[in-house]
UniProtKB/TrEMBL annotation:
InterPro entries: PLipase_C/P1_nuclease_dom_sf (IPR008947). This is Uncharacterized protein. SUPFAM superfamilies: ADP-ribosylation. It comes from the Eukaryota.
Length: 259
């Protein structure tokens, strides 16, 4: 089980992992005597998204996405001509260059690309803040939202993650979840007809309890904002969302690891 949490910047440790958590070994950071590793990178992923002096035009941003692909170039042209701040999540959720470039830059800490995308990151953040505030108005008496995320991981990654039960994780890219457990199970691969996978990957389900009153790193249901609509019941967490891993479980029948 993962519980959403927050920090005032003085935690005894921070663990930085990418969206898929597949490279968790490469994104672990400790401080105050707990084996520091590349701690100088933390300030960027922790603060850059709230930069207010945007000043970067869409054309400069889009130059990084041109790769001689006609479809991609058409989407970039459409983005340059039609993008508005209230369509940020719509564009992010679309299967196009933005999703790939942004999350790739965040995972790989490509600061120049991140700087180009400051305005877009801020627009997504504002939309999430607004949607979260609206949600809180309706569900103030029931502020805990349970969401799920399914994916595949290697056995080594699972063992490594289990070692850090009780630790706090900060996700260094956007983190997509769903309100539907069945949808998450589909993404985990547990519903595949093949019981034994040949690629060495294992089905993993993350069960997350998030408090909609925590506003530092916004998150919200985005069905009404998404390119794909409400079909996947998606709840999107902003870059830097923090979670504490409180328990692990193994479902032998489904060959499913639950965090």
């Amino acid at each position: 089980m993962l519980h959403q949490t927050h920090t005032d910047g003085n935690d005894n440790f921070n663990k930085w992992v990418n969206e898929s958590l597949a490279a968790v070994c490469q994104h672990v950071y400790f401080d105050e005597g707990n084996a520091p590793m590349n701690a100088s990178m933390n300030f960027t992923l922790g603060n850059i998204y709230y930069e207010r002096n945007i000043g970067i035009v869409e054309q400069r941003l889009a130059q990084g996405g041109r790769r001689g692909n006609t479809v991609t170039e058409q989407m970039i042209d459409e983005f340059e001509k039609t993008y508005k701040s209230d369509k940020a999540i719509w564009w992010y959720s679309r299967n196009c260059f933005l999703y790939r470039i942004i999350n790739g830059a965040l995972r790989q800490k490509k600061l120049e690309v991140i700087l180009y995308f400051r305005f877009f990151l801020m627009d997504v953040c504002r939309q999430l803040q607004s949607a979260q505030a609206q949600y809180l108005e309706y569900f103030e008496d029931n502020p805990i939202l349970k969401v799920y995320r399914g994916q595949l991981m290697t056995r080594e990654e699972i063992i490594y993650l289990e070692k850090f039960t009780g630790f706090t994780y900060s996700i260094n890219s956007f983190f997509s979840t769903t309100r539907q457990r069945s949808t998450a199970l589909m993404f985990s691969g547990v519903t595949d007809a093949t019981a034994l996978r040949t690629d060495g990957c294992i089905s993993v389900l993350f069960e997350i309890e998030a408090d909609i009153r925590l506003k530092r790193k916004p998150f919200a249901y985005i069905g009404h904002l998404s390119y794909f609509g409400s079909g996947e019941e998606e709840v999107l967490f902003m870059v830097g969302a923090m979670f504490r891993l409180t328990s692990t479980e193994y479902n032998k029948v489904q060959n499913l690891h639950i965090f």
